[in-house]
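Can anyone check this?
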Amino acid sequence: MRSLSNFPKTIKTPRLALRVIAPTPENAEQIFNLVEQNREYLEAWQGHIEYLRTVDDVLQNLGFRHNQIEKNEGILFGIYKNKNFIGRIRFFDVKDNSCELGAWLIESETGNGFMTEALSALETELFKFGFDKIILDIDDGNTKSESVARRNGYKFEKRLPMASWAKCVGKCDSLIYVKKKTSI
């Protein structure tokens, strides 16, 4: 298996930079402040946000995610616009040549195509690195995420009944979207 420590640590697009987020107190404070400003918006679909209640919680989360690189389990990237953190995107659940992606943006940066751009850039690098399949597990009702998946060429594969939970809708179906290297 490939070592994720060899995966690019920075990915640039015309408007964004995706950078591995180092587990530093400065990064944790910056992320915590944005989460606090966007808590209600983010918690609607991002269940893990409710566990980020302090700067130390964020720092511990960043440390956990950073350790996943050496374990070949995934990588967390910050999404930066003009050097400002506006969200995050990560791949995880690495199995053979497939992985799952998850992401969020702060509310003020949605609707500008940034997530579509970030997703496209990360998937390009994943396919170049040797992954054959990328999975998006989207809560039923999260129409913004479904739109991003379709814009990026992901195909709906299956519905998992009552397999997820989102604060804004409660128990819900998971919608599995997939993109394969051969489909690009």
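Reply from J.R.: I decoded it. The two ends are 23 Å apart (CA to CA).
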